[in-house]
Write a structure and sequence with these properties.
By secondary structure, the chain is an alpha/beta fold. It is 44% helix and 20% strand. It has helices at residues 3-18, 23-34, 44-57, 71-77, 93-106, 119-128, 145-153, 181-195, and strands at 61-65, 85-90, 112-116, 135-138, 161-165, 199-208, 211-220. It has a seven-stranded mixed beta sheet, with helices on both faces. The protein binds 3,4-dihydroxybenzoic acid (DHB) and magnesium ion. The site of 3,4-dihydroxybenzoic acid has 4 residues, from loops. Residues 40, 139, 165-166 line the site of 3,4-dihydroxybenzoic acid.
């Protein structure tokens, strides 16, 4: 059996064993596919991993950069304590309208603020308004991975947890000669990470239904 096939089958096995039927997220996945959105949402197990981190850390103010159809936004919003909220960003207006419909249908519209437009502009506005976040999921255009991490660190407090998606990209990130913008953006993020102080950092390489990729984790310690 091809490794990619094993990864996908194992993902399905773990999903069946560990997760319960989830009509809310299943409806979002279905609507997003029907609307023709790119299949780049996190997997169900990854969505639960993000929700886990939010519950574990007690995060109340969550920022997502890159909403797509709202799958991870809703998964994370459900993990929030009473009074918690999540801001998310989507650059594409048509994608944002699919996401907003999904969010409204999920019943979590009251705590999700979808900002339509370039993520960096939404981040600047939030920063200017004095926003602070406890948990951040960076999952937009990978070209700006470093810029998003840098801006996010300006809106962090000691203990803020930041997760950056797609940091392996099938191993393409190893290629120092790559001309691919997303690879360059992720490599730029890692070069920036080398300069950081007062931030605990680690990474998880992942395999599964979405192939070989990974997430970097940052925790601000001071
Ligand atoms: C891509 C983007 C993602 O956020 C992801 O999780 C997987 C792939 C992409 O742009 O290829
Ligand atoms: Mg992603």
């Amino acid at each position: 059996m091809q490794l990619a096939e094993t990864f996908a089958k194992m993902d399905a096995f773990l999903e069946r064993s560990l997760l319960r039927p989830d009509p809310v997220l299943e409806a979002i996945a279905e609507n997003s596919e029907k609307a023709g959105l790119v299949p780049h949402a996190v997997t169900p197990l990854q969505a639960e991993f993000l929700a886990f981190l939010i519950r574990l850390s007690g995060a109340k103010r969550v920022l997502e950069i890159g909403c797509l159809g709202g799958y991870s936004a809703v998964a994370m919003a459900r993990a929030l304590p009473e009074g918690g909220y999540l801001m998310t960003t989507e650059i594409d207006t048509r994608t944002a309208s699919v996401a907003q419909a999904n969010i409204d249908e999920s019943g979590f519209g009251h705590c999700i603020d979808l900002q339509i437009g370039p993520a960096m502009e939404a981040l600047e506005r939030a920063h200017d308004a004095g926003a602070v976040f406890d948990f951040v999921f960076i999952d937009a255009d990978k070209v700006n991975h470093k810029n998003y991490l840098e801006k996010t660190l300006q809106m962090a407090r000691p203990g803020t947890l930041i997760v950056a998606d797609n940091i392996v990209r099938g191993g393409d990130v190893l290629d120092a000669e790559s001309g691919e913008n997303s690879v360059l953006g992720v490599r730029e993020m890692f070069a920036f990470a080398e300069t950081l102080e007062g931030v605990e950092m680690t990474a998880l390489q992942t395999v599964g239904a979405k192939g070989y990729d990974g997430m970097a984790l940052f925790r601000v310690s001071k």
